[in-house]
Amino acid sequence: MTLTTTTTSELLAKQQQRLVSSLIKPASQLRGLVFGNSIDKLLRGGLAPKTLTFLYGVDANHIMNTLCSNSIRVFGGKVVYLDAANSFDPYFIVRSNFPQSERVAREFLQSVIVSRAFTCYQLRKLVTDKLVDLIANQENDQQKIKTVLVSGISSVFSEEDNTPDEIEIIEFLMARTLREIASDKNNGVSFVVVSSNSPSMNFVSKSDTAIKLFLEEGEKKGVSNRRKRGREMIQKVILMKHYSQKFETITLSEK
């Protein structure tokens, strides 16, 4: 029988290794926001810091709640959520993170600054004036704004109230401002994500990454050989713009 002895230095080394391992986050978390689904793999590990991302299509506005939650949980700081689609869902965020701790959930939600817009003029003012001032006048380094989310760009425009030229100008002003915020290396903001039900060339052209979510009819798998196969809607994602130049399409989930 061979006896092995462990020195104090070896024990300390093992403890330190376990501590370091517990502090190391997955590459996707270190690199960017985590969607928590196959979009992470599509993006090669998440959103790159100091970038503007445009997310549009089916359920795009709702996904912003996941990004809001993950931003605070992984990176800390505060999130500014400009909500033009009435999509901010604090109950979803609480259920996803703290279903059994009301106190912790309340403290968590205090890290989210929510402003709602009901017209395109209100949203433009929030983006080009209020948001810029809010970021510029931050005082507490421990609670700096790290993520900016703007949901529902297309929700505030209508063909009845806004001319095509007016829509073009307002979208351009917002896209340009958000691009400048995302690119600023000194403002503390790491990620800017915009969502919309429909595409906008202004945001596609200004963004570093553009992601389209859509539904496609597919064949439904029967639970029994005696039952006929039906049709169902399958949610898919296509990477429209990305630094990798690999514009792949993946299946996200089934509806």
Kindly provide the radius of gyration, computed on alpha-carbon positions and rounded to a whole number of angstroms: 22 Å
What structural class do helix, strand and pairing data support?
Answer: alpha/beta
Report the helical percentage: 25-40%
- Number of beta-strand segments: 8
The topology string of helices and strands comes to HHHEHEHHEHEHEHEEE
Total helical segments: 9
CATH superfamily of the domain at 35-212: P-loop containing nucleotide triphosphate hydrolases
Distance between the termini: 61 Å
Overview of the molecule:
This protein is α/β, with parallel strands linked by helices and 255 residues long. The protein has a domain at 35-212: Rossmann fold, CATH 3.40.50.300. 39% of the residues lie in helices and 23% in strands. The protein is built from nine helices and eight strands. It has helices at residues 8-23, 27-31, 39-42, 60-75, 90-97, 102-109, 120-136, 164-183, 201-206, and strands at residues 51-57, 78-83, 112-116, 145-151, 191-196, 209-219, 231-241, 249-254. Helix 4 crosses helix 5 and helix 7 packs parallel to helix 8.
